[in-house]
Amino acid sequence: MKTVTIDHQVLPAIGIGTWHMGDDSTVESQEIKAIRTGLNAGAKVIDTAEMYGSGAAETLVGKAIQGYNRDHLYLISKVLPNNIAKTIEAHLDASLQRLGADYVDLYLYHWRGGAPLIDTITELERMRIKGKTKAWGVSNFDIDDMSELWNLPIGSKVAANEDLYNLGSRGIEYSLLGWQNRHGVPMIAYSPVGNADSLGANMTRNANVLKVAARHEATPYQIILAWAIHQPQVLAIPKTAQPDHMTDNVAAMNIDLNKEDLALLNAAFPAPTQKQPLDIL
Ligand SMILES: NC(=O)c1ccc[n+]([C@@H]2O[C@H](COP(=O)([O-])OP(=O)(O)OC[C@H]3O[C@@H](n4cnc5c(N)ncnc54)[C@H](OP(=O)(O)O)[C@@H]3O)[C@@H](O)[C@H]2O)c1
């Protein structure tokens, strides 16, 4: 099983995304079942945000984790950019209330907004010291943002960066992923299956992906996920509201892609040869 270490916690390398979950009450029980299927299969990380359904996803997660040992969960939530960093605590308190939790494990700055970065991270660090989050990090940061962050006082306390990353969207490999590895900052890969392959790469129908899938008696989605986490310190957070998809997704962390598999996948979806703008969803 692949693992990733964030803030000294060793975590299974596939977690659970929750964007668009909690939006429709008629499928709530199925969504809760999907999340629990993931946790029961060995996932630990749940990624959510105050933005998702304006709190509805956090509320759903709060329901899904009832009865689970908090120590066995790793909850990530995110604060929307705000021009006034001082409001972060009120936003975090509201997230905690929806989650029914005393703390989150990782609190991310969802994307860079107008507030001076130093003010934002000072407030995030204050939340860490208060115990409302165990660690803080960022999301949708490219290499320039990470370098700027790193050079700020306490900037190197950043526990992770969460960016769009999948086989069909490899731009971060040009420089950012290496930078993060050298600086010990894990990457959380969002949209790891390309948002159900809706982003245009056609990964799930690609002949080489299908060939590798056949070799491993796996689905194309599983191969795409196994690829997303094959490099060290990359955690993937696929979203699914389908319990059977969840079972497949979590099982993908046990698929070891060999050199031949990787060569086939590389041939179909080559690594970037120049800097590309950061993909954002
Ligand atoms: N930090 C950020 O700015 C940011 C931005 C976007 C996303 N995120 C996080 O990353 C998570 C994942 O990204 P995402 O939701 O954009 O896209 P994703 O996980 O790449 O794709 C989700 C889609 O793939 C389908 N799917 C998942 N597993 C499948 C499987 N095994 N077989 C068939 N279909 C499958 C899901 O449909 P079904 O539900 O029908 O299975 C859903 O439509 C989000 O939920 C969110 O937590 C963060």
From TrEMBL:
<feature type="binding site">
    <location>
        <position position="110"/>
    </location>
    <ligand>
        <name>substrate</name>
    </ligand>
</feature>
<dbReference type="GO" id="GO:0016491">
    <property type="term" value="F:oxidoreductase activity"/>
</dbReference>
<feature type="domain" description="NADP-dependent oxidoreductase">
    <location>
        <begin position="13"/>
        <end position="267"/>
    </location>
</feature>
<protein>
    <recommendedName>
        <fullName>NADP-dependent oxidoreductase domain-containing protein</fullName>
    </recommendedName>
</protein>
<dbReference type="InterPro" id="IPR020471">
    <property type="entry name" value="AKR"/>
</dbReference>
<feature type="active site" description="Proton donor">
    <location>
        <position position="52"/>
    </location>
</feature>
<dbReference type="InterPro" id="IPR023210">
    <property type="entry name" value="NADP_OxRdtase_dom"/>
</dbReference>
<feature type="site" description="Lowers pKa of active site Tyr">
    <location>
        <position position="78"/>
    </location>
</feature>
<dbReference type="Pfam" id="PF00248">
    <property type="entry name" value="Aldo_ket_red"/>
</dbReference>
<dbReference type="InterPro" id="IPR036812">
    <property type="entry name" value="NAD(P)_OxRdtase_dom_sf"/>
</dbReference>
